[in-house]
Amino acid sequence: MKPTKKSCAEIIVDFLVDKKIDRVFDLSGGMIAFMEDAISNRDGIDCFPMHHEQAAGFAAEGYARMNQNFGVAMATSGPGAMNLMTAIGSSYFDSIPTMFIVGQVHAENIKKREHVRQEGFQETDIVSVSKPVSKYAVQVLDPSMLVYELEKSHFIMKSGRSGSVVIDIPINIQRTEVEVASLMHFIGSSEHAEMMKASDRHSVEQVEEKVQQLEELLKNSRAPLAIIGNGVRLSDTADALADFVRRNNLPVVTSLLGVDSFEYGERLVGFIGSNGNREANIAFANADLIIALGTRLDMRQTGDPKFFNPAATVVHVDIDKHSLNYAIKSALTFEMHLTDFFAAAQKIETPEKAAWFSFIRSVRSQFARPFIYSPDKVDPNTFIHELSSAASPAAVVVVDVGQNQMWTAQSWKIKKGQRLLFSGGMGAMGFSLPAAIGAWCAGSGPEIISVCGDGGFQINIQEMETVSRNNIPLKLFILNNNSLGMVREFQDLYFNKNYQSTVVGYGCPDLKKIANAFDFEYLRIEGLDKDDPALKGVLQSKKPVLIEVTIDMLAALQPKIVYGHALDDQAPYLDEAQKKTLEKLKSDLQAS
Question: What is the pLDDT of residue 328?
Fold first, then answer.
């Protein structure tokens, strides 16, 4: 016989199990002790302890990115809740469905007077703090409304453009027992009905009319191109995208978060943006029809809008109406889920534009960055290329922030089945290691790879113990240039090479000693040969391994846009002969 009464902590756990959540990432704290106890006594779900709340949040994000469900992180009040903030914002900006459950002080000790700073020990108004960087934040003070708020949070988190939600629950509420049958429900309520109604965006007739317009644009274009973003993976439509691109003979470029959505091959030109592949930026700048799929076309992708391709007609498909026309004006917009768009457009089929593909092939052969091999020096782009060649199709690669992120986006060649996870909008150093732990917990295979710089690695270095304790076969690649290289490059350009706090006052410990301390195996790479068997060997190890890849301190991101230049005018700049070659290719395309 089922109990008629349960504690609110038990009801929360029941809700998560019902939603098929098997891990909750946490760092133990007094204000979540009732929830931790409830989880430990429930089958089908476990706490997964981390060493820092930020890391727990990133792990929940990595879990959500991989399992097409959502992630959950839990922290105590005050400092614990505040330490979640970077991860809350990261999930919000990158549209990752993640639920953050925060324990709060006893309701009697919550501040009630505006000018009093704090009443309860470790009390912090996390709802007010997190509202600007979450889809929904709520404090539950009435036990009868607990399930209502859980269901509402889940609905908001997953509907439309997904993102993070925050639920703050005082400790006395967690331990309160309630009659299960008396609990209010959001699903089926009038508020739920209103939200469902508001999500209906287009009639069938409107969509059909817009699809016909798109078909005409495709037929009449000389140089059509698709740019794909994070929305493809979020909507699980990579196969539908591939079919759409094949039927309409489109070359493809990607945003940073779209890099792993399309298999490397003839149709994939590359990654666009400030540090994008030169050949991809040139293609993007010369297309006359740009179909943007699940990407917001922000300035890091398009460059300064005043330099944006003036000849291009833009078609924009995005579930978030606020992403449409906010930076680049579109001739045709679809405010809809990509699943629905690809279904509506499945009858469109257009022939290959021979001159356009000839232009693309020539640009790729003439302007792609060469790979450089040396027995006593590591070129970072070449290393990433070799790592991508050695990695299996089942590999999950989680990348940190800084130069390592851009080198990976530029030079990783995606195989079908691989995943490449980045922190996009928040751009948080320290993301890779804990997010890789979360991705592994979501059921990723044995080949889980973290790529870091020496700076970002140190931010959540403590989670190496989490890896060892859980026997995670993580391969931790640290591109070590003994500096904070991205900012150091900025100092090269604008501060006369004053390396304050990037080299001067910055340090990296002996990584071999760090590996030994955390029971990782250790490998150092100081030079690189083509198809180096050492890479394949280390990836096949069943143990956690730290691989230190030594990089010259002055290794730079190339190509890159310097302020005041167009997307296809990246440094190092083309010489006169290269400029003439490109102008000839453009002229031939226009004449076709």
Answer: 87
